[in-house]
Amino acid sequence: MAVVNVSLDSLAVGTVPSVTDSISVNKGGKVTFNITWPAGTNNGTCKLVFNSTSQDPFNDEMGGTTSFDFNRANANAPATNTLTVEADATVGTDTYCLTLTIDGNDYSKDPMMDIDP
Fold this sequence. Notes:
It is a single chain. Strands 3, 5, 6, 8, 9 and 10 form a six-stranded mixed β-sheet that branches. The chain has a four-stranded mixed β-sheet with strand order 2-1-4-7, with no helix packed on it. By secondary structure, it is mostly beta strands. Helices cover 0% and strands 52% of the residues.
């Protein structure tokens, strides 16, 4: 299982989250996203957007987008969500856009994902 740690140090507009820069995962494997952010709301949305010439490994769509809501129990706990890579994923290595939406504001970074055959 691959783990992507996402940390947002501030909810100020323009803050760039710290994200695990690169992960490697097998087809059919799982990717867990651990998301932390400062006190405030305890939920938000995470959107992963893949290059228009690359396949989204979570839904098999070319240039696809995968989104999920996240929630935490309290301000000291991370929000955790696990996604499964499609068994027939054809993407190799891709830079994708990870965007967190919290309290109506977007925070983005472009890490890399490598899907092993």
